[in-house]
Design a protein that fits this description.
alpha+beta, globular, GNAT family N-acetyltransferase, acyltransferase, Bact_Acetyltransf, transferase
């Protein structure tokens, strides 16, 4: 289910991405063999169905994806709050510069831009940026 959410969300929210080169089976194997083994992963569940997930590797939020039909219902905020609750020193993430919805979401939750890059650090070769959230001393 995480693999389906990953693929559906990327397709629905980032139409500028190059076509997916990996098959659904390959993405499912990646979730099982890489994502779930390397990252602390949280899922959002509604009516016994996974509707979103967040994956944290150290202090890097590697993924936060939702089923497209549950966007803008607070699910992403709940997942992000859980990630931040487990990240006392803060959280960083990369986001495509073109992903204005995600950038607005993270900035509305206190993330600030640390740097920008021309795409040389992601497999899509698209300009991205690093965002960082650091808790206020009163939040810890």
């Amino acid at each position: 289910m995480i693999a389906r959410i990953h693929m559906a969300s990327r397709s629905a929210t980032m139409p500028y991405l190059p076509p997916q080169k990996r098959s659904p089976e390959q993405v499912t194997r990646w979730v099982r063999d890489v994502l779930l083994k390397l990252c602390r992963t949280w899922v959002a569940v509604r009516d016994a169905e996974i509707i979103g997930y967040a994956a944290l590797d150290g202090d890097m939020l590697e993924h936060l994806y939702l089923r497209p039909d549950v966007r803008r219902q607070g699910v992403g905020t709940l997942l992000l709050d859980e990630v931040r609750r487990h990240s006392l020193d803060g959280v960083s993430l990369h986001v495509f510069q073109q992903n204005t919805d995600a950038r607005a979401f993270y900035e509305s939750h206190g993330f600030t831009v640390l740097d920008t890059a021309d795409g040389d650090r992601n497999m899509e070769n698209l300009p991205d940026m690093t965002l960082r959230w650091t808790p206020n001393p009163t939040e810890v």
